[in-house]
Each structure stands twice: as structure tokens, then as C-alpha cells.
């Protein structure tokens, strides 16, 4: 479908339905279509990954005819929207705009990416969008606002690969500092980006926060990490079939 005005868009996120990024994304999408549905968690679900709520009920609170706050994960939101809340299947699912990076191995933890994964599994072309920023500094939403429309327009006019979604990250830079748009491969940082931070409560019992402590490195040429380091927008197509074909061939020899 090349006519953007004919798209039926589902918007999901993991920062919560009242997050600044999801409001910005809806505003941008409404520039080309009014058929927009927003189904998002009622509170932040960052790090939820591709989890679903199997042991507790999932409740959807109707805000208006096309906005729903869900007591559940981003994946729950995609499932409910597509199977229950929308009268017709969306033609595209957009997840975000996340407040923070979803680069390299972040994708395996990210609720933002997970909603796009679920869309892809259900046969809906899906895109995850994230705005990179430095902690305790200004979030440059202006950059996502400047570059997202053209990138989405290009993707909407592209023949989609089944079983895949697209992961977009906008760099931590103002729009006039962006060096371009790069189609990249998924990178991988050195180990140690998530670490337990030990504390002790008032009864002298230890507890832990999981601390985000990105390790520097992994800037291999052609990767999302390199692109963001160079202040470029990264556009990374990701396939859901995670088979390592080279390793599979070696194992076949071992087990022959």
C-alpha cells in the first residue's frame, strides 16, 4: 500500500500511554492518516521484553473510541489491539517513540521492540522507534520529529519482508547535527551493560536494583552502534527467525 492516507495505524509503546514519545508519534502519524489507534500500557513497562501476561488478567480501559490503556505488557497491547479492540487488522504497527536507545542487544530486553515483534508475528508490517539521549540531559525529541515522517513514508512505500520488523534509533543530537540516515546491521556491545546494584534495607536484608551501565565499544562498521556514535539515524531490519545457520551446519556434522 503506497498511499499513506489509506493506512490503518496501530501505535503501541512500553513507556506508557501518557509518555511524551507516544504522543509525538501519534501527532506525526496523523499528518498522513486519521485512522490511528493507540493501545498502550497504563504505566511504564520498559524492559518487559516479549513477555505476555499468562497468570493474571489483562484489563483494557477505554479512554475514547481509539485510545485504550492496558494493564499489561506491550505484547499484551499488540495482541488485544489486533484481536479484540480494532474492528479491522492494522496495516502497520508503530511502537514508540521510546525514551532511550534500543540498539544492539537492547532489542532482546525492549518492550518497544517486542511490540513490533508481535506485530510481525501476526503478519503486520511493524516498526520500532527510539530516541537516544544522555541520562539527566535533554531528550532531543526534535530529531525524531524531524526525521521520522520521511523514514516512515519510505518504509510504507517499501515491499515488506514477512517475519521481519524495522528498528529505528534517532541519535542524541539536534536535527541540524544529524549526519544522515544509515541502513545498518544489529551491533553487539561488550558484556556487562546490565549489572546488579546491591543495597540493604532497614532490616539489614539485601536487595538489588538492576543498573543500566552501557559498556563502551562494539562500534563495528555498518552497525547501529556505529551509526548512533556518528550521530546518524540507524534503520535496522531484524528477522524473527534467530537460527544461526553457520553454527547449525557445524552441529549437523557433529551429530551425523
What do you see in this structure?
There is one protein chain. With 256 residues, the chain is α/β, with parallel strands linked by helices. The protein has one domain (4-187, 219-254): Stationary-phase Survival Protein Sure Homolog, Chain: A (3-Layer(aba) Sandwich). It is 27% helix and 26% strand. The protein has 7 helices and 11 strands. It has helices spanning 20-29, 74-85, 106-109, 111-121, 141-156, 224-229, 245-254, and strands spanning 9-12, 36-41, 59-64, 67-71, 92-99, 126-131, 164-170, 181-183, 194-200, 206-212, 233-239. Strands 3-4-2-1-5-6-7-11-8 form a 9-stranded mixed beta sheet, sandwiched between helices. Strands 9-10 form a two-stranded antiparallel sheet. Helix 5 links the parallel strand 6 (126-131) and strand 7 (164-170). Helix 1 (20-29) packs across helix 5 (141-156) and helix 2 packs parallel to helix 4 (111-121). It starts with 8 loop residues before the first strand and ends with a helix.
Biggest sheet architecture: 9 strands, mixed
With helices defined by DSSP (H or I, 4 residues minimum), what is the helix count?
A: 7
Low-confidence stretches: none
Domains (count): 1
Mean pLDDT: 95
The CATH architecture: 3-Layer(aba) Sandwich
The total count of strands amounts to 11
Alpha-carbon Rg, integer: 19 Å
Strand proportion: 25-35%
